[in-house]
Amino acid sequence: MIVLAAIGAKALLFLYLWLMAAIISAFLSDRKGYGEKPGLVTGLLLTVLAPLIWLVMPARADSRWKVQGAFGGRGDGRTVAEARAEREQAQAEDKDK
After folding, report:
1. How far apart are CA 47 and CA 13, in angstroms?
2. Which among 57, 58, 35, 53 is positioned nearest to 43, based on CA atoms?
3. Can you tell me the distance from the alpha carbon of 37 to that of 35, in angstroms, rounded to the nearest whole number?
4. Rounded to the nearest 10 degrees, what angle do helices 49-56 and 36-46 cross at?
5. Which of 17, 22, 48, 84 is the most interior residue, by most CB within 10 Å?
6. Helical pair 5-31 and 36-46, crossing angle rounded to 10 deg
7. Which of 50, 49, 45, 25 has the alpha carbon at shortest distance from 35?
8. Each residue of 28-83: pLDDT tens digit?
9. pTM for the full model?
């Protein structure tokens, strides 16, 4: 008789690893200003490498990563919308000069 339970347990652990990589990648790409979908796709296709890729990917200028920090712990309490408005206002003032 073939024991299939051991294969099933390993497969379940690999499934959890695969899904956690996708979740982490989606979170990181969203924080860095690229949206969740690119992170989800890379997490599903590249599994373990995707979170590492998103950690080294540069954040956009007005992303939550730049404004509020990696996990929202630092910063001056501004939202991304407030940071964008300030940046656009400063650019408009520079154009007027």
Report:
1. 13
2. 53
3. 6
4. 140
5. 22
6. 150
7. 25
8. 999 999 999 999 999 999 988 999 999 999 988 878 888 777 776 666 667 777 77
9. 0.74
